[in-house]
Amino acid sequence: MCEVQAVKDLDAVKLVGHLLQRTYGQQMADIWNVGLNLALRISDLLSIKFSDINSDRLTLREGKTGKLATIKLNEKARVVIDRIRAENPDHVYLFQSYRNRWSLNKGPKPLSRRYVSRAISSIGEEVGLALGTHSMRKTRGYHLYKNTRDIARVMKMLRHGSEAVTLRYIGITQDDVDRDFVELEL
């Protein structure tokens, strides 16, 4: 498995969303847009049930860490979630698979991680970026850090335990640090 990147250019973030919508449909674009705004691991993002969402807040237990994540939904995430709920009032999952509705005696399931991964990777190849399912989470962390320069805030949002892990995760490299020293003269 190759290392995936944060999307550092905001125009590229929009382009990826547009290409996902054009190539794979609205549901995949919604995954990208909600994923960018919630900064969850893909397994947690795909496991979101409508019952986990109460007004403007999402509450779920993270699969990897077992930590309770309580996330206040921003306007963009709320609009997308409300539209999905209105279009699919009988769905259990926010990103529910349509395959199972024709299967007899099968309950609803979310989209598979593999399908989402292939779609995002494919668009990454098209735009020349190493993209994967973690790119949404990394992109959110990267842009929060660039806007605030507050690594503690980014760590808290991503629920990381170490600054070094967070910096490496969001793609802050030694070149970025060197550039900061050169560009900021006091």
TrEMBL record:
UniProt key word Hydrolase: no
UniProtKB keywords: DNA integration, DNA recombination
All residue ranges annotated as the Tyr recombinase domain in the record: 1-182
Record-level GO BP terms: DNA integration; DNA recombination
InterPro entries: DNA_brk_join_enz (IPR011010), Integrase-like_cat_sf (IPR013762), Integrase_catalytic (IPR002104), Tyrosine_recombinase_XerCD (IPR050090)
PROSITE patterns noted in UniProt: TYR_RECOMBINASE
Descriptive protein name: Site-specific integrase
A single MF term (Gene Ontology): DNA binding
Phylogenetic classification of the source organism: Bacteria, Pseudomonadati, Pseudomonadota, Gammaproteobacteria, Alteromonadales
Claim: Transferase is one of the keywords in the record: no
Pfam families named among the record's database cross-references: Phage_integrase (PF00589)
